[in-house]
Design brief:
This is ZAD domain-containing protein. The chain is mainly α and 123 residues long. The protein has helices at residues 34-42, 60-87, 90-94, 110-121, and strands at 18-20, 25-27, 30-32, 57-59. A hairpin with a 2-residue loop joins strand 2 (25-27) and strand 3 (30-32).
Length: 123
């Protein structure tokens, strides 16, 4: 594989369907700057290249994966906020330990409920 060609995806080295990682792009009305999305989602130390550097690209497949990862990260953050709200709520703390998991059970998925039960009993 000849890597001397800079026109490759920085994530997977693909040569097709490339977009500049550091320019504004829009997807379904949402502004996206892929380099910042990668840096924020994965804590990768990629910085905006200086004007003397060559352009950096990301391919269509990696853009799809990146959007899914950003959505997953946002879901995790929302779940963490919900857990913090319930576990730091005075009403929740006043319940006996065996009843605490019932507060957050309605409408939640089974895996999430098991996690909450585990957390409630470990308080």
């Amino acid at each position: 594989m000849d890597l001397s060609n800079n026109n490759r995806c920085k994530c997977c080295l693909e040569e097709r369907n490339l977009k500049d990682m550091w320019k504004e792009h829009y997807n379904e009305g949402q502004k996206e700057i892929y380099g910042f999305m990668i840096r924020d989602c994965f804590v990768v130390a990629w910085d905006l290249p200086s004007y003397t550097d060559k352009l950096e690209y990301i391919c269509a497949s990696c853009r799809i994966i990146l959007r899914q990862c950003v959505r997953f990260k946002n879901r995790l953050q929302m779940s963490e906020q919900s857990l913090n709200y319930y576990f730091n709520n005075d009403i929740f703390k006043a319940l006996p330990r065996w009843q605490r998991f019932k507060v957050v059970m309605p409408g939640q998925q089974l895996q999430f409920a098991r996690y909450i039960i585990f957390m409630a009993y470990s308080l």
